[in-house]
Specification:
With about 325 residues, the protein is an alpha/beta fold. Helices cover about 30% and strands about 20% of the residues.
Length: about 325
């Protein structure tokens, strides 16, 4: 079987098309980080070739990556295809004793962006996460997935029986993608019904509705934080929510799941209805009901709690990791 190396659509960094030395840096005089890439593969159904792509990652506090006392936290971004950079501020909530790993899933950020949609799937994303973990040589770690990233993290824990994942954090993650899309549309319809007849005839009506939806159910800060603005402006375009709209979480068949914390904002478009499936899985399924499971609703927050109330969000995550370090 032939092997090809591809980096089509790479966002502003052609250097990832060839091997390179890892780089080090600091973010706004914050914690030290290391950057590099890992190679992931995809089978092309039309040619039979195995294509190789580069997947970018950044590790904060890299000297603690293999700490036995404070195992690393691996963070998965949402979208799909929203670059991981909007999650970087989370690293500032941790001391240097714990490494924080971020990565751009295939299709966005500084990772390869194949244009063929058959190169994308939840199963492939889980395989990519596995490859990252193996490449970094992680023997123990925690997982945090924001929004769609939580789906990948959950599916990884279902498939993995090694026991290396010490805990799971589902951050504004729906158990059903269709329900989350329906709830988002419902909120949008509510906003439209609140607007006056004059406003509804405005040429900027759609923009007005979107702005109100964003401030109500996505990010309730007065101004959108720069990391989030940049991530949204540079998000990938090939793999989006419509490609995973049929996803519904199902319980594991055999092994138990790691201790799990679900976090969502009070005004999140990931509403109570969107997370009902998680409660059923963790409280009713015979394989998962022995797993420690709890939920936290963050007051006055929406979908980006780590930006809207960074301190409180950081405290929740740090506490969950600490009590499950061993």
């Amino acid at each position: 079987m032939a092997t090809a190396f591809h980096t089509p659509g790479l966002a502003g960094n052609a250097a990832f098309g060839r091997p390179r030395a890892s780089s080090f840096g600091r973010l706004n005089f914050g914690p030290r980080f290391k950057e590099d890439v890992v190679t992931v593969t995809r089978a092309d159904p039309s040619t039979g070739e195995t294509n190789e792509y580069s997947m970018f990652y950044r590790v904060y506090n890299p000297s603690s990556l293999h700490s036995a006392e404070s195992p690393p936290l691996v963070v998965l971004h949402g979208g799909p295809s929203l670059p991981s950079s909007y999650l970087y501020p989370l690293a500032h909530q941790f001391s240097t004793s714990r490494a924080i790993v971020f990565y751009d899933q295939l299709g966005c950020g500084q990772s390869s962006q194949p244009e063929d949609r058959c190169m994308y799937s939840i199963e492939s994303a889980v395989s990519d996460l596995q490859q990252l973990i193996e490449t970094l040589g992680l023997s123990k770690f925690h997982l945090l997935g924001h929004s769609f990233g939580g789906i990948i993290a959950y599916e990884y824990t279902k498939a993995d029986q090694s026991g290396r994942c010490l805990s799971l954090i589902l951050d504004s993650t729906p158990s059903s993608m269709k329900t989350s899309l329906d709830e988002s549309s419902r909120i949008e319809d509510e906003i439209k019904s609140e607007l006056s007849l004059e406003e509804s005839k405005s040429e900027d009506f759609d923009r007005l509705v979107h702005d109100m939806w964003r401030k109500r159910s996505e990010c309730r800060l007065q101004e959108m934080p720069d990391p989030l603005v940049t991530a949204i402006e540079t998000r990938g375009t090939t793999f989006g929510p419509e490609e995973v709209s049929d996803y519904v979480a199902h319980p594991p068949r055999e092994h138990s799941l790691p201790p799990t914390l679900l976090i969502r904002g009070q005004y999140d478009f990931i509403t109570e209805k969107c997370v009902e499936g998680w409660r059923e899985i963790f409280t009713a399924c015979s394989c998962a009901k022995t797993t420690a499971y709890r939920e936290e609703e963050m007051r006055n927050c929406a979908h980006y709690c780590h930006l809207e109330d960074a301190q409180s969000f950081g405290d929740l995550v740090k506490s969950h990791c600490f009590i499950n370090d061993y």
